[in-house]
Amino acid sequence: MMPAKPLCLMCRHYYVTWDRDFPHGCRAMGFKSRSAPCLVTKDASGLECLSFVAKAGRRENDGAR
């Protein structure tokens, strides 16, 4: 199930970088940023992220055991 708005933490393209200044990365769009890439994309284009792909085997409440 895809969330109503793309959430980078649930996307297979999202990764955490080693760069202290730009800790969030998006492999699909090829950039690093200070905030979540989906927010940067929304600010720059006015559109929700079109590259969102849900991580395989993840559910919304996996951590709530």
Description:
The mean pLDDT is 85. It is built from one helix and three strands; from the N terminus they run βββα. It is 14% helix and 14% strand. The chain has one helix at residues 37-45, and strands spanning 14-16, 24-26, 31-33. The chain has a domain at 8-45. Strand 2 (24-26) and strand 3 (31-33) form a beta hairpin. Strands 1-2-3 form a three-stranded antiparallel sheet, with no helix packed on it. The protein is α+β, with helices and mostly antiparallel strands and 65 residues long. This is Uracil-DNA glycosylase. It comes from Anaeroselena agilis.
| Radius of gyration based on Cα positions | 12 Å
- Structural class designation: alpha+beta
Spatial strand arrangement across the major sheet: 1-2-3
Order of secondary-structure elements: EEEH
The geometry reads as globular
The main pleated sheet reads as:
3 strands, antiparallel
Spans of at least 5 consecutive residues with low confidence: none
Quick check: average pLDDT? 85
- Our estimate of the beta-strand percent is 5-15%
Q: Could you tell me how far the N terminus lies from the C terminus, measured between alpha carbons in angstroms?
A: 20 Å
The residue fraction in helices comes out at 10-25%
Strand count: 3
H/I helix tally: 1
Protein name: Uracil-DNA glycosylase
Organism: Anaeroselena agilis
